[in-house]
Amino acid sequence: MAASREDLEEAARRMLAHGERPTPEALAQAAGVSRSTYFRLVGSHRDFLSSLGWDDGVSARERILQAALEMIDEMGVSALGMDLVATRAGTSRATLYRLFANKAELFSALAKEHAPLQALRALLEQQAATPPADLLPPLLKAGVIRLLKRRGLLRAILAEAAIDTPDTTTARAIVVEAYEALARYLLQQMDAGRLRRVEPAAAVQALLGPVLFYATTRPETWPGAAGSALDPEEMVGEMVAIWLRGMSPAEAAADPETPLA
Fold first, then answer.
1. Distance (Å, rounded) from C-alpha 20 to C-alpha 80?
2. What is the distance between the alpha carbons of residues 104 and 170, in angstroms, rounded to a whole number?
3. How far apart are CA 181 and CA 118, in angstroms?
4. Confidence class for position 260, pLDDT limits 50, 70, 90
């Protein structure tokens, strides 16, 4: 027997009662119909759910950004099709294009609003007088937890930043801003005698490079790869500790080939 709108309403009520997210794909699967059949029966996904009294209290813009984040995490930025985003967010194409004119504009909003690197500059400026041993371990431990929750977006930002096109301007700006802010902080710490004097860009790469590689690599890569696996905070704590030892002025004094400030 062919599914009806009533069957979809029953499936939607079950999902809502269990606190599940009623996406078009999930509702179609629950009712045993295709996605195209689902839309033929209900028309607007959002209006259909509203007719059942559903209101998640989230704006269309927030739903679109959340849907885009999920798609990037699951399939990468190349799968970020505007029509698919609208469907997943439960909005019309007209609403999506009213808020974001194209894919580049949508990705720009994601990168600006959801990338943890964005907050780095302000924090480093506020904590400029804090010694590296006190600031960097908790900062990077907290940062990596946020990065792991946005692993797909972080991968996309780093990949886009490597491409020189008008559409990748935002990604490049975010990466450059984060590196410049950290370089300024490290240079101040070198001037204060808290770190050995090296090229700031090299110090930034030595600190962030391993952390970003760890944060963008699939989690199943690490367990058992080289001894017992550490949890993310422990892993980053070890990375920062190694970096701090290498950047210690005492280490520089013990190395006759290292120029001192």
1. 23
2. 9
3. 10
4. very low
Closest CA to 205 of 182, 177, 184, 188: 182
Tell me where in the chain the CATH 1.10.357.10 domain(s) lie. Answer: 115-254
Tokens of 186: 């490290």
CATH class of this structure's domain 58-101: mainly alpha
Query: What's this model's pTM, rounded to 2 decimal places?
Result: 0.65
Fold topology of 115-254 = Tetracycline Repressor; domain 2 (1.10.357)
Supply the pLDDT for residue 194.
Answer: 95
User: Is it the case that residue 79 has pLDDT exceeding 90?
Assistant: no
29, 32, 30, 26: which is closest to 87 by C-alpha? 26
DSSP of 113-141: HH-GGGGHHHHHHHTTTS-HHHHHHHHHH
CA dist., res. 53 & res. 39, Å (int): 19
Domain 1-56 = CATH 3.40.50: no
How large is the average pLDDT for residues 243-260?
Answer: 71
Q: Where in the chain is the domain with CATH 1.10.10.60?
A: 58-101
pLDDT in tens, 186-216: 999 999 999 999 999 999 999 999 988 888 8
Please give the distance of CA 11 from its chain centroid, rounded to a whole number.
Answer: 32
